[in-house]
Amino acid sequence: GFLLNLLENQDFQEGKATVRFIPDHPELMNLPNFRDRGTRLLRYLADVIVNDNPDVKNKDASRTFLKPVVPPFDPYGQVPKGSRDRLLELGRDGFVDWLKSENRIQYTDTTFRDAHQSLLATRMRMIDLLNVSRSYAYNQPGDLFSMEVWGGATFDVALRFLKEDPWRRLRKLRTAIPNTIFQMLLRGSNGVGYKAYPDNLIIKFIEEAARGSMLYDNEGREKGYAGGIDLFRIFDSLNWVKNMEVSIKTVRENTDSLAEACICYSGDLTNPGKTKFTLQYYIDLAKRLESAGAHLLAIKDMAGLLKPLAARELITALREEVSLPIHLHTHDTSGIQSATYLEAINAGVDIVDVAINSLSGLTSQPGYNSIVAMMQGHPRENPVDLPLLNRYADYFETVRNYYYPFETELRAGTATIYDTEIPGGQYSNLRPQARGLGLEEQFPTIRENYAAANRLFGDLVKVTPSSKVVGDMAMFMTSNGLTEADVRERGNKLDFPDSVKSLMRGDLGQIEGGFDKQVQQMVLKGEEPYTDRPNAHLEPIDFDQVAKDYRAEFEEEPRMMDLLSQQLYPKVFAEFKEFQQEYGEVANLPTPAFFYGLKPNEEILVRISAGKRIAIKYLNMTNADELGNRLVFFSLNGQTRSITVRDRS
Ligand code: BTN
Ligand code: 3PY
Ligand code: ZN
Predict the structure, then answer these.
(1) Within 10 A of 318 (CB to CB), how many other CB atoms are there?
(2) Cβ neighbours of residue 84 under 8 Å, at least 6 residues apart?
(3) Which of 160, 264, 499, 623 is the most exposed place for a label (fewest CB within 10 A)?
(4) Residue 397, CB half-sphere, CA atoms under 13 Å: how many?
């Protein structure tokens, strides 16, 4: 029983085992391990059936879901070589040289990160990505430059709402897709969070993300690291290079991965009336990022403001002024960004970001399938098997329906973003946020106040986390009925939101031209702002101490990645661990069951370890007794089981 239990232990299989694993896991000596795992999943399902998933606010019980079709592949065949093999063969410098000499346009597929972050509130679960991953890697409809699979908001949302370990997601995806470059979005000093973290946390985070977790063979011997992120896309929410330097240097010096540094695009460089974010501003920024050691340069157009003619001008100028390959990222919130791509491609951009068609458009990226069609016959065409790619769009079209409560309400492109400069991911969030505050009817005012808040602060780049501060200010102005002029006149008497105080103090860094002095003083009310790096005001993390505290709190030996999750999101992480104690590993539940529970006589198969699945069928439940408890009946591998759940309705 012991060896079987050990081999079946999910942590053990997934490389969580350490040398202290067996002494630390006396439960391996107990046979009821399987029973326990099944019971916890039943407890989760019973709870969702009786009380709903707290993350699902508007469940539609009449919905039915289709089974997504995964394009078939030969699992015994060879995985074709891809961009990651090219990177490993050529090394970083050779790879960058290859990229510069390559005429064909390169594609980054953002489906696994930004696309669902921007359309489905980041809720795409690992299982829906994993189910199609091997097929995508084996069939390789196009020779992708990279897939964006991690970072941004996915880290927080995985832990907070999906109850998944983001590191496990990375490891699973890496194992399923060994041949394509994986890239992540890193917010420089802000990591994958909303505030500046100590440098040593950012350094450890990058090292761990690049290396991935240790893998073990069936005898428990170390097999080596799984590998993780091959390309770090690094940005700062104020375009402040000082906030990006540690990240760029760490990727360069402590890993074999590529450091891609971002220019976040704001304003409109073709508008002579706008004097801050000019062509010269971007050229200077690009040169500084090149000197800071970036291997690639990204233009991160998070709000979709880069118009076609501006793209032509910007790419043409950057081509002349810097020698780095250029990677273009945009959001199609206005609806015209495929025209921007065509102009950028004609001007010599190296790589463009696209999302599979069924998760593209509007606040997401332009559609991969359609851009491929646009490029047919173009001198820079990079051939893709479009009929095959379309089948992956079909897969995600079906999967997308599972996430209906998280769909954004934007129905059509909007030209208001040219005035508001609201990033794609935030735009889709703003309306539900306004509704939560009872302000939905004033949505157009909120949009105007967003632009007003930006002017009040001194005109800044707006992207996570600076965009959140501007959004908080817009909500504050709207709910208090304040105009821009009111704030300027009565600011001394207003108690501003904490995030606004923090921004004005210097906690997110500095902006080009400095913050608006008058507003800064009104917000800080005598408190002194600072202009050096936020990290100078933060204690480095004592990882030995943190590990001790972790052992005491969670009674297990932490991996470095657990410590990192915990340090980035202490409260969210503690709740995640508590959830896992109660319900076990829910990441392998099919998504409809995870969000909506089961209908009577509905049966699911759930993988609980390699080659082991359990069959769970929901039978029925009793009425609530006088204490409010219900008995929920299931069949688990043919045996009837009951779970008691308090009905909280
Ligand atoms: C229970 O929890 O009531 C016991 C049922 C568990 C059966 C275990 S689950 C893992 C393994 N795979 C199977 O198909 N059966 C066993
Ligand atoms: C993020 O930081 O999550 C973003 O996607 C910014 O655009
Ligand atoms: Zn984006």
Answers:
(1) 22
(2) 178, 179, 180, 181, 182, 230
(3) 623
(4) 10
Encode pLDDT of 374-422 as tens digits.
Answer: 999 999 999 999 999 999 999 999 999 999 999 988 899 999 999 999 9
**For ligand 1, atom 15: residue with the closest CA:** 614
Rg (CA), the chain: 25
Q: Is the pLDDT of residue 350 over 80?
A: yes
Six-digit token string for 38: 């099944």
Q: Which atom of ligand 1 is nearest to the CA of 32?
A: 2
Residues 6+ apart with CB under 8 A from 266: 239, 277, 303, 305, 421, 460, 461, 462
Probe target for ligand 2 pocket from 185, 466, 568, with the most ligand atoms within 8 Å of CB: 185
In this predicted structure, the answer to whether residue 14 has a pLDDT above a threshold of 50 is no
DSSP assignments along 120-136, one per residue: STT---HHHHHHHHHHH
- Single-letter code of the amino acid located at 556: E
Rounded distance between C-alpha atoms, residue 637 and residue 622, angstroms: 21
Above 0.95 for ipTM, yes or no? no
Integer angstrom CA distances of residue 524 from 451, 466, 530, 616: 21, 17, 11, 57
Is the model's pLDDT at 24 over the cut of 80? no
**Rounded distance between C-alpha atoms, residue 68 and residue 540, angstroms:** 47
Other Cβ atoms within 10 Å of 418 Cβ, number: 16
Name the helix (H) or strand (E) containing 524. helix 517-524
Residues 266, 305: Cα–Cα separation, whole Å? 7
- What residues line ligand 1, using a CB cutoff of 6 Å? 34-35, 38-39, 608, 612, 614, 636-637, 639, 641
Tokens of 625: 């007794």
Q: How many CB atoms lie within 10 A of CB 155?
A: 27
Distances (CA, A) of 206 to 151, 186, 214: 11, 9, 16
What is the greatest pairwise CA distance in the chain? 77
d(Cα 426, Cα 415) in Å, to the nearest integer? 16
Rounded distance from Cα 185 to ligand 3 centre (Å):
9
The 10s digit of each residue's pLDDT in 282-294 is 999 999 999 999 9
